[in-house]
Write a structure and sequence with these properties.
Blueprint: H1 2-5, H2 16-19, H3 36-47, E1 55-57, E2 61-63, E3 74-75, E4 80-81, H4 89-93, E5 96-101, E6 106-112, H5 118-124, H6 127-147, H7 150-157, E7 164-171, H8 174-179
Antiparallel strand pairs: 1-2, 3-4, 5-6, 6-7
Bound molecules: iron/sulfur cluster (2 copies).
Length: 181
């Protein structure tokens, strides 16, 4: 699962043409979870540009935010992510997101609605593109839930996400379910 994750430019399709028009709405109050591995990757990436990330550490780690709630990794001048090539897993997966159904032992895939994400509207009307992106999102999010600590994953699962529709589910690996007990 990890080999492709370490090749930054193969991690995602590029939706910048769509996202630039909505000025990165999803980069406000996003708090994308950062695993220890992702923090190291982002630190290495930014150090090569003479920068350092500001990380907020609470029940789980995420990039620090500005007072207006925008992610500190968002370039407010360009509306682009300064770590686009190595950005957090949930940022690559968006507008696909996830929840865990512990009773059924599954991970459920959700797509945000067009009301909050123009790209979600495009994906909902183009099934081949949606399935292609789901492949990428699934790979990223399964890696994320595998790498997070149990307490971090539990904290993330307590966050309610509105304006989403379920698009699929699959069995979670036992190793992840064990962390949630
Ligand atoms: S993923 Fe959706 S909300 Fe986020 S920047 Fe792109 S179009 Fe906007
Ligand atoms: S890491 Fe990048 S894509 Fe993710 S919320 Fe922050 S600015 Fe947006």
């Amino acid at each position: 699962m990890r080999s492709q994750m370490d090749e930054p430019f193969s991690r995602q399709m590029n939706f910048i043409s769509v996202c630039s028009k909505c000025q990165a709405k999803c980069c406000r109050n996003a708090r994308p979870p950062l695993t220890h591995r992702r923090i190291r990757i982002i630190e290495d990436y930014l150090q090569s540009k003479g920068m350092l990330p500001r990380i907020c550490e609470g029940e789980y780690s995420f990039p620090d935010e500005r007072t207006d709630g925008s992610c500190s990794l968002l370039d407010v001048n360009t509306g682009r992510c300064v770590v686009h090539e190595v950005k957090p897993e949930t940022c690559v997966a968006g507008p696909i997101t996830f929840d865990v159904n512990r009773r059924r032992g599954t991970i459920e895939w959700y797509l945000k609605t067009e009301a909050i994400c123009p790209l979600a509207g495009i994906l909902s009307r183009n099934r081949p593109l949606l399935l292609e992106h789901l492949l990428s999102a699934r790979r990223e999010l399964l890696c994320l839930v595998d790498e997070l600590e149990g307490s971090e994953l539990k904290a993330i699962l307590r966050i309610e996400e509105e304006d989403t529709v379920k698009i699929g589910e699959e069995r979670l690996p036992d190793s992840v379910l064990k962390k949630l007990r």
